[in-house]
Amino acid sequence: MRTGDMEPAVVEVEATAPPHVVEDCRGVLQVLSDGTVVRSSASPYAVEDRDDGRVEWRDAAYGGSRGLGVRMYRPKPPRERQGKKPLLRVLAYFHGGGFCIGSRAWPSVHACCLRLADEARAVVLSFDYRLAPEHRLPAAHEDAADALLWLRDRLALTPNNDDDDGVGSWLADSGADPGRLFVSGESAGGNMAHHMAARFGDSGLGPVVKVAGYVLIMPAFTSEAPTESELESPATAALSRDVAERYNRLALPAGANKDHPLMNPLGPDSPGLARVGGRVLVVVGGEDMLKDNQLRYAEEMRAAGNDVELFVLPGEQHGFFSSKPWSEASGEVVRAIGRFMDRDAAAAGSD
Q1: N or C, which end of the chain is more exposed by having fewer CB within 10 Å?
Q2: Helix, strand, or coil here: 170?
């Protein structure tokens, strides 16, 4: 080597591992190690397509700049009654998915709403809402309240004062009865239905639109102290402790635990149940990990003076209504909801 020549410097570059999956929710939501959120539009549940035309449906949007979707369903009137359409009760529905996954467009959710519209004879509106972890709680509950206010405004429209999106006319043509609105949801959606009952009760939507009841299908209520049904739940359950913990990590506000008031209505920081208004139906799966919290909720609701019905299906796991929408057990849920709504009509007729 000549004087002054230098050997080329060798720079060691530490290999950077590619991002890897750190959280996975049923294969349709993955969070990577670099914080990237990867979503799939596919549903984790394969269901039979029975959309045979007995129910008409269309999509619309609500939420202003958020552009959230809503799918609306109405049963076709029987052929012998093709003249004047009878008034139909209205059912607002919020899907489940741990506040992290789910969509009105999932075939499983679509099937639930087809069945509710057809068999319970209701105008059904299935609302999307913002999902975690991109939008942690309370984003979903804020969207649920916005959805009900959006629906209120369209149910209250007169035929000559329609909204820009035509939803008011569609609802009026469907025979939607603004005096018989029911608010429902499964799992996370059932949790949201409870909080809408606490916010709006039976009269908080104004003089024209009346909430006639709330339907909580296996509501997602948690607690820091594990319950007996949680401890006994097998790792292979549809909702296991591991899966539930994953949803909580992704959905709860930063630093919050499972006693957060939005997740535990019976928790130490919750406002209590006396403020909840309106009739409530609670549907419970006998093998649901969250069963004990749901049963305690119904018991405490009654103790607080609320009108509560409890419907338990032995042997059924969490989320069966949407994962098996055409099953006999789901049919029992639809019939129980129909009876719950019929009781409101009977009470109105006796006034």
Answers
A1: C
A2: helix
